[in-house]
């Protein structure tokens, strides 16, 4: 155990003196660290607002997407549990009826299995396709579950494997990975290890024409496709058979049209993203700083309080969202029912600069002439639409040379300067601490020598004979 002999000669607690002097110096470091916390939070607050603005930009760009405004067909099934449908493209308008009497199924063969002490191989192939041959290694003493796992792990194998237990007997049941009569397969057991047996159990066998589906389209003759996914019975429509139907299922295809609801949701999303910017920014510029803050939490508060740059950004963003445009089918978002909340609706939202959407007016405008709504956002010729104007303004804030981006870079430089300052202060403290310890040690050594000499002189004087 270390024993401190600080101040033995002088009687002073030199370690305590040095510690107190260093505490004074540490206050300088703490002051810089507090400023660092504030600047880091300033950047964090700006970054959060930047992310909100970028979300507005994304929402505005979404409204320029050609896919959003492209008329498309839809197809529906009167019973999706039996028949599922989707448009492939260019489908005929109208309806069809489909009766499903049987689903297409996989070929199947089952075997009694007994494991042996020697490794071996199993080979599978579709009966009419030699190129599908796959050989699976079977380990010595492999259980039925081990064999099934080895088969299922090989994605090129033409079969799946399952284990069925019948009393003490384990059975392996193989099913083809495709459906229909041509999905039958062979199992070659000639290379199994000695002692391993695979004896076919015909009770599990499923082969032949009944593996094909049985359907009637539009009341016609029965057809027997080998798959449950059909792309040729209704041109332009993919039909997926999912279950046997007790009566014909109707498949209906519409003429090409835009998705009015999807467009209305995208426009509403733009307004919601804008309102989110307002909410987040207002919260930052109204949060006051904590006087004489000492905790990290208090130091982080109010870093954008009363920030004129953010106040200006909100004002200009609102002007951009509510401005009138010319040369397009509509004159602005107000024509879509987007504007400042009406009196009595939400006075606080109106004061903060938020916008509201009249959904009835919006949907009516889209239904009346969606091309005008598209022009309003996407623009026409050399005339920029609302999406272009919004993204252009946001670029002045969050782009590579944007105002907010620049302020965040300034914060980074400031924090970097603080880090360098803290490093220098710590180095100076370490050097000063070493200097003080050396000085006090020298002082103690001198005092100790002086006291030793004084004690010797005193003893010498005491030993002189009395006069």
Automatic annotation (TrEMBL):
Q: Which UniProt keywords apply?
A: Bacterial flagellum, Cell projection, Cilium, Coiled coil, Flagellum, Secreted
* Compartments, record wording: Secreted; Bacterial flagellum
> Could you tell me which residue ranges the Flagellar hook-associated protein 2 C-terminal domain spans?
212-449
Domain named Flagellar hook-associated protein 2 N-terminal is located at: 10-106
Q: Which residues form a coiled coil?
A: 415-446
What is the stated purpose of this protein? Required for morphogenesis and for the elongation of the flagellar filament by facilitating polymerization of the flagellin monomers at the tip of growing filament. Forms a capping structure, which prevents flagellin subunits (transported through the central channel of the flagellum) from leaking out without polymerization at the distal end.
Kindly state the subunit structure of this protein. Answer: Homopentamer.
Family indicated by similarity: Belongs to the FliD family.
Could you identify this protein by its name?
A: Flagellar hook-associated protein 2
Upper taxonomic classification of the species? Bacteria, Bacillati, Actinomycetota, Thermoleophilia, Solirubrobacterales
